[in-house]
Amino acid sequence: MSAMTSSKPTPATTKATRPRPGQGFSNLAFILPSILLSFVIIGYPIFEVVRMAVSDVNRFGKIQGFEGLGNFFKVFEDPIFIQSTYQTIIWTVSVVGGTVLIAIPVAIILNEDFHGRSIARTIVLLPWAVSLAMTALVWRFVVNGDFGTLNLALTQLGLPFNNHPWLATATSAFTIEILVGILVSIPFTVTIILGGLTSIPVTLYEAAAMDGATKWQSLTRITIPMLKPFLQIAIVLNVIYVFNSFPIIWIMTNGGPANGTDILITYVYKQAFAFGKLDIAAAASVMMFLVLLGFSVLYLFMTRQLAERN
Amino acid sequence: MHKKMSSRSRAAAIVIASTAAFAITAPQIALAKDTVRVRFAEYSTKTGPFFKDLAAQFNASQDDIEVVVEHLPWPEMQQQLITDISAGTAPDISHMATRWMAGFAVDGALAPIDDLMSDGFAETFVPTFLDLQKVDGQTWGLPIAASARGMFYNKDLLAQAGVEVPTTWEETLAAAEKISALSDEIYGIGVQGSGLDTEGYWFYSLWTHGGDIMDDDGRSGFASDAAVAATQNYIDLIKAGVTQPGVLSSNREDLQNLFTAGKLGIVLSGPWLNAQLADEAPDLDYGIAEIPITTDRATYGVTDTISILADSDVKESAMEVLEFFFNDENRLAFGKNEGFVPVLNSMSNEPYFTEDPNMAVFLDMSPVAKFAPLVPQWEEMAESLKSALAKSYSGEEDPAVALTAAAEKMNALLDE
Amino acid sequence: MPRKVVHSVLCWLGLSPLLIVVLFPYATMLSTALKQKDEIFQFETKWLPDTLYFGNFVELFVDRGFGRAIGNSLYISIGATLVSLLVALPAAYALSRLRIPGQSAFRTYLLVTQMISPIVLIIGLFRLFAYLGMINDLNALVFAHSAFYMAFAVWMLQSYFDTIPKELEEAAWMDGASRLKSFWRVFLPLCLPGIAVTSLFTFVNSWNEYAISLTILREGSLQTAPVKIAFLTGTLYETEWNIIMAATLIATVPVAIVFASIQSYLIRGLSLGGVK
Predict the structure, then answer these.
(1) Is C170 part of a structural domain of the chain?
(2) Residues of A in contact with B193 (CB under 8 A)
(3) Per the count of CB atoms within 10 A, which of A304, B383, C38, C195 is most buried?
(4) C229 occurs within a structural domain
(5) CB neighbour list of residue B168: distance below 8 Å, 6 or more residues apart
(6) Residue A37, min C-alpha distance to chain B (Å)
(7) Cβ-count burial of B12 within 10 angstroms (0-12 exposed, 13-18 middle, 19+ buried)?
(8) Is A29 a member of any domain?
(9) Is the pLDDT of residue B228 over 70?
(10) DSSP, res C1
């Protein structure tokens, strides 16, 4: 967090306790409304999910008996769950990795002073203005083999893609879905990184320039290190959102062909609403949650260790 | 809460106001009117308005029951119904796919209607279709829609290729080869590899090769010799390069669109395609024939169901509403609207169904119609079948191996 | 300034691959939305319609009630933005300025609320709102969305608050202003850009949310824009691409205008460093 504190006149770590020191508990009133709101609305459904995960449940969520860890064992025995887990890792790593790799240079360019910058910024943000479900639907149309506009454009450029079926193999379909996933994650990520870039004091660059640093050197020695906390947040939040992202895959391929594009969230949805196995779905959801929790804790721990060592 | 109070008091105000208004003109007001909520899934943009009209007619015809119609798109229907039933907010009557019905009935969500139907009502139905709504000896709903499938062919493309309408799968392969040779943009026959009803497309081949979904012992027939031959039939078409490219990404709608655009010589589909063709390709010259065979004539009969839910407090009134929807006149209008085959005996001789060759072929095939089994875990079985088919069509796995895995999954689910 | 011109050309060139990919679907939407239904699936695919046809837009608003859906979406998105601000502002202020017992537990809690997809929680959410008698109530969505998007609002606001020098408030206290007064008079005005940006995030997320709206709002007249669009696709046998593309275009416009008008704030407001 050093980047944050260094840009501030007063470090945030020294909290103002001015008026009545020591009365921390009354300050809880400030955070109570937010805790209450989310506790009721998110907490209750989480409780339901956990309860169903350890119960024998019919397709309408009626509990018919205690199951213990039985549902979890059933989930582990399902080869499609294992396959979906593997694919979820590929999906999350590729989308988040691709997003960050593209978003950094894009944000750096958008932070430059150039003609039409606000137009460029608005265009980069556009994918955010459409819901994921709609984006996925439009892209399904775009990549349609015979009637899609992608093949139309490629053919007009003289390329041999006249009626190429982009979604017909799992590899090609998954690649397209990952690219769409990257596209829709870029606006959020670029915004965060841009925020980071604007928080880097210009004086740092001026000082570096005076010491004779090249542009490349200030990029690698100042910009990238100063962006680290922002990248950290971008990565954690993107991992959470992408890991749980449902509409793109559901609408474009439904997890097919042959479960080749199923990820955990589509697996859970199928179990719950198509197969009527709410208990299995709940158990799988709990495991998804644990995976994310594990990742976040580990990642935040590791990056903090790293930051402290430096 | 606030909003609820205010809307309730607003409702009260309206009731008082309208009561006052009525009091002048009508001396008596029915006090306890049954409200029957009916939910429909949309077959087309006409479905919702059609039933809203019927409900208005019904409401105007009597004073005891008020019908309220909701309509939803199909893809959302299953999830919404499950959440509604789980929270006790389901409607009194709901439309559903017959293949969900068995699971819903087993889990206690539906009311059996045998004792609710008035005398003679059950006898007005074509027996095959009503029998399909029975599980464990009880009737769980009415067949709201029924369709059969046939072979649509583009007459111009067949003529250009110089082929006759094929009647066997062997002839179909030969015809498709000639049609495909016409141009890079034209494909002989469509094979469906993804989305809703992928398994249905395979059943056409399965049944016409003499196979069945379940054998005589009630075990899976997915891996029988006939099933493997049926799969090989499609693989041969794909390998010969006479299908549309990208079978694994083509859903039912994609095939319909290709046929509409005049790019597909042959496609297996249902009567609803007539409506799309009339709408979007009025100049396309096409015909409909029976599904090609190897050993047996067959078609896929599919029904959708409309049921009364177990939690409904107004089951008798709900049945009354259903009997109104299913009277001869209303059913005929519905059938014409959506292009479904008759479910009532009285409709079978209607000129609309018998004289139009594009409808008559479906009616002719009704006696050889076969159906998907009514088992609670059918959706999951169909999903594993779809996976096996995708692996077979792509050549990733030998069809016998892939189908055996699907059959084992089905048997395991049957034992659950 | 020829140097800036060269620089600008280079910048645009660098961005162009991304810009093309972003704009390509919009070209597709426009092309399809201006076609009649029978022009979409033809033997030869074309970009341009035979004649410009605006009937899809007319049909959308006149026959399909899309205006109403946009109204519902606006109500929910604005409501969710206000409610989440209302709870997130004090929380963020406290995190930034006050000593709170269990501060890091609270941060972890916020992160945890983001970890479960609403899709997984749908049955529980539906039961909760059914119990509260709020099915088919737009306010249910206001609360649900604010609960889900609040965590992000807290982080953003806090990181923004952290950038505001505390001396300014302290100066106000010395002048005898009460803590609340200095918050209102000094602190809040300084944070307005940050609040604007946070609001935009919540607004956009709520505007685009699909799964919860679909589940809780059953009546056609209460549907939100994304759900309405999805319902247009939903007849069993064919998808009405012409109408969908028109609707998606329309649904994009309000958000795009907001983006364009506040994008400079958006960047400045996002000095985000909250998740520790």
Answers:
(1) yes
(2) 168, 257
(3) B383
(4) yes
(5) B292, B293, B294
(6) 15
(7) exposed
(8) no
(9) yes
(10) -
Tell me what pLDDT residue C108 has.
Answer: 84
CA-based angle A217:A195:C202, to the nearest 5? 155
pLDDT at residue C268, as a whole number: 58
Instruction: Specify the length of chain B in residues.
Output: 416
Interface residue B4 vs chain C (CB under 8 A): yes
Spell out a b/e string for B316-348, using b for 16 or more CB atoms within 10 Å of the CB, else e: ebbbbbbebbbeeebbbebbeebbbbbbbeebe
Q: What is the ipTM of this complex?
A: 0.87
Pick the most confident of B83-97, B198-212, C87-101, C182-196: B198-212
Residues B220 and B319 in one domain: no
Residue A210 lies in a domain: yes
Domain extent, residue B391, equals 150-300+377-415
- Contact between C95 and C251 (Cβ < 8 Å): no
Quick one: which of C80, C86, C62 has its CA closest to C208?
Answer: C80
What confidence tens digit (pLDDT) does each residue in A244-254 have?
999 899 989 98
pLDDT digits (tens, 9 = 90+) for B47-74: 889 999 999 999 999 999 999 998 888 8
Q: Is some CB atom of chain A closer than 8 A to the CB atom of C19?
A: yes
Q: What is the pLDDT of residues B313-354, one digit of tens each?
A: 999 999 999 999 999 999 999 988 888 888 999 888 888 888
Q: List, for residues A138-174, the tens digit of each pLDDT value.
A: 999 999 988 999 999 999 999 988 889 999 999 999 9
- Say how far apart CA C206 and CA C149 lie, in whole Å: 8
Q: Are residues B185 and B291 in the same domain?
A: yes
What is the rounded average pLDDT of the residues C137-153?
Answer: 94
CB contact under 8 A, A15 and C47: no
Number of domains in chain C: 1
Q: What's A254's domain CATH number?
A: 1.10.3720.10
The secondary structure of chain B in percent helix, strand, coil, rounded to multiples of 5, reads 50, 15, 30
CB contact under 8 A, A126 and C41: no
Q: Are residues B204 and B339 in the same domain?
A: no
% of chain B beyond a pLDDT of 90: 68
Q: Which of residues 250-269 of B touch C (CB under 8 A)?
A: 252-253, 256-258, 260-263
Determine if the peptide bond prior to B75 is cis (ω within 30°). no
pLDDT at res. B21: 40
Residue of A25, A186, A281 with shortest CB distance to C101: A25
Give the best residue of B248, B252, B375 to mutate against chain A (max A CB count within 10 A). Answer: B248
Q: With CB atoms and an 8 Å threshold, state whether C214 touches B262.
A: no
Residues 6+ apart with CB under 8 A from B52: B69, B71
Does C24 contact A at CB distance below 8 Å? yes
Chain B residue closest in CA terms to A63: B86
Q: Does C230 touch chain B (CB under 8 A)?
A: yes
CA distance B74 to chain C (A): 6
Domain extent for A93: 77-309
Name chain C contacts of B279, Cβ cutoff 8 Å: 37-38
Chains that touch B (3 or more CB pairs under 8 A): A, C
Nearest by CB to B89, from C135, C220, C237: name it.
C135
Write down which chains contact chain A via at least 3 CB pairs under 8 A: B, C
| Residue with token string 């025995």 | A77
CA-based Rg of chain A, rounded to a whole angstrom? 24
A117 interfaces chain B, CB cutoff of 8 Å:
no
CATH number for the domain including B282?
3.40.190.10
Query: For chains B and C, what is the number of CB pairs under 8 angstroms?
Result: 95
- Chain A residues within an 8 Å CB radius of C112: 293
Taking an 8 Å cut-off on Cβ atoms, the answer to whether B260 and C133 are in contact is no
